[in-house]
Amino acid sequence: MRAVVTVVHLDATLWRDSDMDADLARSMLLSERVRVEGVLAAAGRLSARAAEAAERELSSAEQHPAELATETIERELDQSVVNHAATELVELDAAMKRLDGGTYGLCEGCGQPINEERLEAMPAARYCVEDQAKFSRNHRRPAGR
Ligand SMILES: [Zn+2]
Description:
It contains five helices and no strands. By secondary structure, the protein is an all-alpha fold. The longest helix has 38 residues, at 22-59. The chain starts with a helix and ends in a 7-residue tail after the last helix. The protein binds zinc ion. Zinc ion (ZN) binds at residues 107, 109-110, 112, 127-128, 130-131.
């Protein structure tokens, strides 16, 4: 697995002019998955530490409001990172399914091939740039961004 991931980065510039290579796309999705899982693991460790620190604060007789506030902010940041990474994992899995089904790289809105540079930057992209813009306008995420 690790060897495959390394090869992807070396070859990433070679496929600009060629048709979408399913193996390469799969490698990119896997490599992205490894990265996102790393983010989730790191965020999990951070939030465990923040929770412990918060418990210590709460159990100590003397409160330190400033520190407490800092930790609350840290946990909130943490949560948005986790939410984002979790969403990304879902998207990566969906992209993997499209790859298996032979529809990877095709826009789910208009059915046209998605720009290769866009896929390179966002291997799990479902929509072409135009449809993504439409989608974002019509379906604002509750969390907002
Ligand atoms: Zn489209």
